[in-house]
Write a structure and sequence with these properties.
The complex is a heterodimer of chains A (92) and B (525). Chain A is 34% helix and 10% strand. By secondary structure, chain A is α+β, with helices and mostly antiparallel strands. Chain A has a domain at 1-44: Histone, subunit A (Orthogonal Bundle), CATH 1.10.20. Chain A has a two-stranded antiparallel ribbon. The longest helix of chain A is centred in the first third of the chain and has 18 residues, at 18-35. In chain B, the strands form 3 sheets. Chain B has a 9-stranded mixed beta sheet. Chain B folds into 3 domains: 6-26 and 34-273, no CATH class; 303-459, no CATH class; 467-524, Arc Repressor Mutant, subunit A. Chain B has helices at residues 56-68, 170-187, 227-246, 292-302, 306-315, 321-329, 333-342, 347-373, 394-407, 418-429, 435-448, 452-459, 467-480, 482-489, 495-506, 513-524; strands at 6-17, 54-55, 72-73, 80-83, 93-96, 103-112, 115-128, 132-136, 146-150, 157-163, 199-209, 219-222, 255-259, 264-267, 280-281. Chain B is elongated, with a radius of gyration of 30 Å. Chain B contains 16 helices and 15 strands. Classes of the chains: A alpha+beta (92), B alpha+beta (525).
Chain lengths: 92, 525
């Protein structure tokens, strides 16, 4: 099982050292090899499992309520300007 | 390749914000124009441990739309996470639907040059909107030093409607979007204002040699903020493709932005990454399996669709196409039908109130309100300027309230009910009011909210139909205009119009016109 660790890391915006790439590469390969066991089974006619619990149609009524803890959310921002979250230049 | 005839192929993706009270997966208000970052919560900002719960109304509105677009509602649909990094997306994924959308396989009929064309609808699905970015140091994202994020819009219920590549010209694309926008407004699911972003449109365009069945290389065009812009942007892109192909070149598959000022499209500068969204089923949300009974209820709630109503109004009610369109797309059909149920008269009479008189009432009220508040209202026009009180269309009212908030203007709510409209026509038919006086009465009723009878009594506006009283006025009028009386007696019958006018003047418009003429003839003989 060969994994393009660099590609996966870039998609997740993770910077990995060479040792980490090797370590995570092995771990990911082990996980996927284990999942590959499924290929040994005949799954024809088995619908894809999107959820582990047999629940459906869970809704809330369309009622608005004020935000419970605005200050806490704003406090979590690394950088802000007035009431806005400030982010660095998007396109270099 | 030079001089080869090409066929243009266009498919559209339309995103419509749904008219719900709260957001798609949390209880934050779904409201435009609030101060930045006030309608946000742990769920829509993606705080660890928070859990989304689906808004039932949003599902209902999407099903309603899908049914109106002749789609099949899928027995089971699931939400999926679409991953990408962008500052307006706090969770780093958007909850959307991917492999199993809410509805598939419908169509929308558009009309172009009097020809009806069926445009296929691939799918209708539900997702959530992203936040809003303000770029600092430049008008656009290019060259901005930094950006500010407002998450109020994050999590707004969004419905995506994807068309088949059935459109063959920029004009058809614009007509499709406009027809769809009208339908969404009519259904009360979206206010469909492209300029404000409650309806957004992306287009895929490609060219292929005439007669070819395979598609050419497509480009995606974004940033079209009006129906006109769609036509212009796609015309520009069509031309660009044709030029590339005429030179023997190859179109590069890419996303291009339309510039409203230069009326051209341009590719994004910088390196473009191939999209890799890594979709997977959203584990925090369970499948949607709308019971047939619910779908049926929603279907029954739709009633007649615009095209059917317009055709019926033209045939049965003998209204012009323009009037039928106006009534349907300004949500006035409920009022018209309601009035007809209460008092049967020519539908034209009711339509005239709604189409001809109401806008002038509104203009007058706008003017008075503007003078009162002393606010400079250079543009006093409102997108949905009237509300029909207790008409069936609750959505229209919500729309109205939304618009008021958007424009920051306060306008008196119009107290016009189908019952009032029916009553005013009854009073005209019964001879109590002339049309002209009826106008004054209805306007006063709308303005003050008082009953018609109260206004008529208070201002002494009833039509004078008492022959004795009118004869007295007629004799007076004849006495005061001896020259015209001679002319009439000398055979010049047209002078009668002058005398009727004088009668109206003397009675402040209250004389019954037919009786006035009759009494004048008596006075002149």
């Amino acid at each position: 099982m060969q994994i393009d660790v660099e590609h996966v890391a870039r998609l997740a915006r993770l910077g990995l050292s060479d040792e980490e790439k090797k370590l995570f590469g092995e771990q990911l390969a082990a996980i996927l090899t284990y999942a590959d066991n499924l290929k040994k089974l005949n799954t024809d006619g088995v619908p894809p499992t999107t959820h582990a619990i047999p629940l459906k149609n869970v809704y809330r009524a369309d009622k608005a309520a004020p935000s419970p803890d605005l200050p806490a959310i704003m406090a979590g921002a690394p950088d802000k300007a007035d009431r806005m979250f400030r982010v660095p230049r998007i396109i270099e | 390749m030079a001089n080869m005839k090409h066929e243009t192929v266009i498919g559209l993706e339309v995103h419509a914000q749904l008219l719900t009270e709260s957001k798609m997966f949390c209880s934050c208000p779904n409201k435009f124009g609030a101060p930045p970052n006030t309608n946000i919560c742990p769920v829509c900002t993606g705080q660890p441990g928070s859990l989304p719960v689906t808004n039932k109304k949003a599902v209902e509105l999407a099903i309603k739309t899908a049914l109106a677009l002749n789609c099949r509602i899928e027995p089971s649909s699931v939400f999926a996470r679409k991953h990408y990094f962008y500052p307006d997306l706090p969770k780093d994924y958007q909850i959307s639907q991917y492999e199993q959308p809410l509805a598939t396989g419908g169509w929308l009929e558009i009309e172009i040059d009097g020809q009806v064309k069926k445009i296929g609808i691939t799918r209708v699905h539900l997702e959530e909107d992203a936040g809003k970015l303000v770029h600092v140091g430049a008008a656009r994202i290019m060259g901005a030093e930094e950006s500010l994020v407002d998450f109020n819009r994050t999590g707004t219920p969004l419905m995506e409607i994807v068309s088949e590549p059935d459109l063959r010209s920029p004009r058809e694309a614009a007509a499709y979007t406009e027809t769809l926008a009208n339908l969404l407004r009519y259904l009360g699911v979206c206010d469909a204002k492209m300029e404000e972003g409650s309806l957004r449109c992306d287009a895929n365009l490609s060219l292929r040699p005439a007669g070819e069945t395979k598609f050419g290389t497509k480009t995606e065009v974004k940033n079209m903020n009006s129906f006109r812009a769609i036509e212009k942007a796609l015309a520009a892109e069509e031309k660009r493709h044709a030029e590339v192909l005429a030179e023997g070149g190859q179109v590069v598959q890419e996303t291009r932005f339309f510039d409203d000022v230069t009326e051209t499209t341009s590719g994004m500068r910088g390196k473009e990454f191939a999209h890799d969204y890594r979709y997977f089923p959203e584990p925090d949300l369970v499948p949607l399996e709308p019971p047939a009974k619910w779908t049926e209820e929603i279907k029954n709630g739709i009633g007649e669709l615009p095209r059917t109503v317009i055709a019926r109004y033209m045939k049965e009610y003998e209204l012009s196409r323009e009037w039928a369109d106006f009534l349907v797309y300004h949500e006035l059909t409920g009022c018209l039908e309601g009035a007809l149920k209460i008092y049967k008269t020519k539908p034209f009479n009711y339509a005239r109130w709604l189409i001809v008189e109401l806008p002038s009432f509104i203009a007058e009220l706008n003017k008075e309100a503007a003078e009162k508040s002393n606010i400079n209202k250079a543009k006093s026009e409102l997108p949905h300027p009237w509300v029909i009180e207790d008409a069936a269309e609750k959505a229209a009212e919500d729309n109205y309230k939304k618009n008021i908030e958007v424009s920051g203007k306060s306008l008196p709510k119009l107290n016009l009910t189908p019952a009032k409209l029916a009553e005013i026509e009854k009073l005209i038919d019964g001879g109590t009011l002339s049309y002209k006086i009826a106008k004054t009465v209805l306007f006063a009723a709308i303005k003050t909210g008082k009953e018609l009878a109260a206004i008529i009594a208070q201002q002494g506006l009833t039509q004078i139909s008492d022959e004795g009283e009118l004869l007295k006025v007629a004799r007076e009028v004849v006495k005061n205009n001896p020259r015209q009386a001679e002319q009439y007696k000398g055979g010049k019958e047209a002078v009668m119009m002058f005398f009727v006018g004088q009668m109206m003047k003397a009675t402040k418009g209250r004389a019954n016109p037919e009786l006035a003429a009759k009494m004048l003839k008596q006075a002149l003989s």
